[in-house]
Amino acid sequence: MEQALENYDICTEMLQSSTAIQAEAGAEQRDIVIRLPNLHNDSVVSLEEIDKNLKSLERCQSLEEIQRLYEAGEYESVVHLLRPTLCTSGFDQAKHLEFMTSIPERPAQLLLLQVRVLQKELAASTSEDTHPYKEELETALEQCFYCLYSFPSKKSKARYLEEHSAQQVDLIWEDALFMFEYFKPKTLPEFDSYKTSTVSADLANLLKRIATIVPRTEKPALSLDKVSAYIEGTSAEVPCLPEGADPSPPVVNELYYLLADYHFKNKEQSKAIKFYMHDICICPDR
Questions:
Q1: Which of 140, 169, 198 delimits the end of a domain?
Q2: How far apart are CA 145 and CA 161, in angstroms?
Q3: Hey, which bits of 78-221 come out as E strands?
Q4: Is residue 273 part of a domain?
Q5: CA 96 – CA 138 distance, rounded (Å)
Q6: Could you report how far apart the first and last alpha carbons of the chain are, in Å?
Q7: 6-36 residue pLDDT tens
Q8: Which of 43, 161, 228, 229 could tie 157 with a disulfide, CB 3.0–4.6 Å?
Q9: Residue 265 domain flag
Q10: What are the UniProt keywords, alphabetically (predicted)?
Q11: Is 82 left (phi over 0), alpha (psi -120 to 50) or beta?
């Protein structure tokens, strides 16, 4: 497109200057012929390509506006612009969410913002009053997770998740809390329950990622050494949370137990013991 505009300017200048020169010299004006390639026959540009580029330009301009508002802290305006792209029309509930098609061109921060909007939409519904587009919203949410964090892995991803070139980001605690609540089992598996009740290998890998970013506390905590000493019989002191210990977030209360259960039911006993001990440090009365 830039080359075409430049050529147009050159042709205009040539025509204008040629006409002026002929007028000054008093010469008879002759027709000037400029030969241009046949864009259709030469396959230089197609209507489909032009349409595609125009749509891409429109999306980029919209993203620039959203990005500007986001950086200016005008979050209500950002949500107002994004919200229409997060729901299907009442006439076509089966249609994929519109914004999914443009994910490759959306910066990671806008995908994160979409996660926030989807989270609020899903949280607004109750068990008695299910969101009318719950399935579509969950599909869109899982697409965001896949683009941002590559979860689940390519091998086990659902068919409706698409490959995109969106930039991935590091998982932070705030987002990890929501992902944990969204993907965790509805009920904690028992140690003697079936293997199918435990978490998947993909979810176990996500839990391990979350375990590496658990916020540290300066308050007293039950140490692995005390738990190990009691188990090995070198100490008669029953493990318990020390006075002044902070109550652990609900995520941490279940995180290590789920990892221990996964390894236990996959016959990886040494790893299971390690995570069971971490779980005892958090919930010694489990």
A1: 169
A2: 10
A3: none
A4: yes
A5: 11
A6: 67
A7: 777 777 777 777 666 666 666 666 666 666 6
A8: 161
A9: yes
A10: Nucleus
A11: alpha
Structure token digits, residue 199: 């978490």
Mention every residue, 6+ apart, whose C-beta is less than 8 A from residue 278. 224, 256, 260
Closest CA to 85 of 66, 64, 57, 69: 66
Residue range of the domain that includes 269: 183-282
Amino acid residing at 164: H
99 and 82 belong to one structural domain: no
Among 169, 202, 229, residue at a domain's last position: 169
What does the angle CA 160 – CA 162 – CA 164 come to, to the nearest 5 degrees? 165
The interaxial angle of helices 47-71 and 108-124, nearest 10 deg, is 70
Residue 73, judged by CB atoms within 10 A of its CB (0-12, 13-18, 19+), counts as exposed
Split into its structural domains, the chain has a count of 3
Q: How far apart are CA 130 and CA 197, in angstroms?
A: 25
* Residues 57 and 119 occupy one common structural domain: no
Asked whether residue 109 falls in the same domain as residue 134, the answer is yes
Cβ atoms within 10 A of the Cβ of 227, count? 19
